[in-house]
Amino acid sequence: MGFGSKWVGWMWSYLSSAKFSVLVNGVPASFFPSTKGLRQGNPLSPYLFVMGMEVLDVLIRRAVEGGFLSGCNIRGGSGPPLNISHLFFADDTIIFCEARKDHLTHLSWILFWFEAASGLRINLAKSEIIPVGEVVEMEVLAVELSCRVGSLPSQYLGLPLRAPNRASYTWDGVEERVRRRLALWKRQYISKRGRVTLIKSTLASMSIYQMSIFRMPNVVARRLEKVQRDFLWGGGNMEGKIHLVKWEVVCTDKDKGGLGLRKLAMLNKALLGKWIWRYACDKDNLWKQVIKVKYGQEGLGWRPKKANGAVGVGVWKEIWKESEWCWGNMIFREDQSSGQGNWNLNFLRDFNDWELDLVGDFLHILRGHKPSLEEDSVLWRKGRSGQFRVKEAYSLLAKYDDTGFPSRSIWVARMPTKVAFFSWEATWGKVLTLDKLQRRGLQLPNCCFLCGCEEENVNHILIHCTVVRALWDIVFGLVDVKWVFPETVKEVLASWRGSFVGKKRKRSRTPFRCVFFGRCGRRGID
């Protein structure tokens, strides 16, 4: 590859200096040097591995050029086909060839030469040969590579290959991982704020990898969201507790009155829409070449043509469904600056006499315009710096209404977690007071347990009860504030953002919220 002898010596010292020891009957044996492979955990190993895989890449390409391997031809419109012979990702490799004995013999020799040149050995015990379509004498062909025979559908890089596009069973692995993770939290007490964090960081993120390629069936989305809801309100034991706030409200931004969780169907649309954006921005990526050859392109190469009828791959058809809203939020930026380039015109033939006037007009037009050396580009209308971001695309699809929710009075730094979460529930009027329990069918007398005079509801027990009002008067007296109480908890919290003046009074807002929680905590409705 052209590396100097000094650099090669450094790398050889790095490889040959490694020594290992193993336990024999529980006792460490003597150290022995490494003869093959790379040292795990060393920061240089990934780079050396990529360099080693370049050897295999060159061997396969030369075999295809010489006709010893065929590769896979992607055909679509009238243009030339695209040949793909192999795909590499880290130590996972897919090699395409015809189901012929001579091709597999050539492939076995390529792998043998690669092992001799790089010192990296192919683990054929973990490899398999997968036929596509009807292939006779498959077992005989597998003997040439000394590996087992696989079948489609299969898995590659954690994603299903050749599985039905909308089949719900292709998502069974995601659901199983979610339930296994929940089993680890079953015996732990986790606060509601902690559950929200775990849903965002773990439960909701487990499906993102597969959702970034495939359309999630609605039945799978409903099942996964039910797991998230049950965990949020019931904890690790998934107890059947009452879901106080609607899931649609929970899955809105915090400043709009939610908890910042995401609806899976909407998130799926935003993730798939990113591929429409990438097609316009990426240059010569292999995946874009495949789509371009398969379907063709339009709009001066900014977008592919739509796959009509039964022609096409189901995965891309699902992605294409997001093209309308994506293109509606893209704008094209043409370079308007005076260019520094020059025109270099080459005409295919001489001009006829009657064409000279037209050529003169054409050259006159070009004289006042210098071509720019910069390329035109596409920008995302709602994105920072004109770039597509899934978070902003999700907000665009969700179309949150401005509810005037006092989120800045609830989610405050250094606020106790239980107090903030209870304040959020109380703002929506979703605390389990006696009136709410009666609506759910429980036969209970509705009488405030503090004053014993009026019916109990969230606004009464937190604001208007005579016993609670006396407590409020004491707290406000400590900070020298005279205040007329609003009607609802939401109005109370909204007024706290501007009613008090001075740092001392601003610091006093936290005890006010704790009064909310303290009264209802004693009542047992937190």
Automatic annotation (TrEMBL):
Q: In its keyword annotation, does this UniProt entry include Transport?
A: no
Query: What InterPro entries does the database record attribute to this sequence?
Result: DNA/RNA_pol_sf, RT_dom, RVT-Znf
A Pfam short name = RVT_1
Where does the UniProt annotation place the signal sequence?
1-26
Q: Which SUPFAM superfamilies match?
A: DNA/RNA polymerases
Which PROSITE patterns does the UniProt entry name for this protein? RT_POL
Keyword terms, alphabetized: Signal
- Which residue ranges does the record assign to the Reverse transcriptase domain? 1-161
> Under which name does UniProt file this protein?
Putative ribonuclease H protein
The upper taxonomy is: Eukaryota, Viridiplantae, Streptophyta, Embryophyta, Tracheophyta
